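Input/output pair, single chain:
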Amino acid sequence: MHAAGAPLVTAFPAKWPVNSAPRVGRRYLTIRCWTSLSNDTANHHYSRRSQQYWDKFYKLHKNKFFKDRHYLEKDWRSYFDDEIESSNGKVVLEVGCGAGNTIFPLIDTFPKLYVHACDFSPKAITLVKSHENYSAEKMNVFVCDAAKDDLCANVMPFTVDVVTLIFTLSAVSPCKMASILENCKQVLKQNGYILLRDYAVGDSAQVKLHDRNQMISENFYFRGDGTCSFYFSEAYASTLFQNAGFAIVDINTYCKEITNHSRNITMPRRWIRGIFGRS
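Output:
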């Protein structure tokens, strides 16, 4: 039985672009999926203890692991810009804020923004509040598991212009994704948007995890440190958001080759990017 709103979609990578590595593409196409999304996914050891493992991750790496994400202001600038005749900035909620690598660059670029930010890792929230640019006047930062905790307990309903999900959905069990989107919808304005950036099927990291037999369910894997990662196809993400009542504004898969010069290898990386409007 599938969780409500969790679509049954078999995810295969889109056609590999010219600059991608065909060797990895062929290896991925040989993957035989064990099963589609089921309630067993949520009961898997690493899925059940995801909060615990992410807390350990931030305790170990603090705010040094992820780079600040300045690219968001370039890709989605119009969604954060102030309205022409408004003296107030827009209201943004980041679900799964981690150590603040998205929200602090946004505030630096758009100083009128008011930011709500949450994460299910208490350690991550502690790191955000200890950041040198943290401001209680401009930010409302709180611990929240958006798959089960009501966002409206910390954010007024229908007051948020933009919700960002930056490598957030991939970190949780697929059967919890629909609940997160439904929760986000309760705080979004009628004409609000969700901006998605996450891992895409066929990414070199997925191939490595599959080769190591670290698959929990279809396109859902656990890493060596116990954290989890899901890999999206455009079809899967589109169906997931549409089932949750969102309209697709734009969706695409971004492919890039990254070279590790010390190891003399080139890795094809794939990310999915989407814009979804609250209907």
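Residues 1-39 have pLDDT under 50 and may be disordered. DSSP finds eleven helices and ten strands in the chain.
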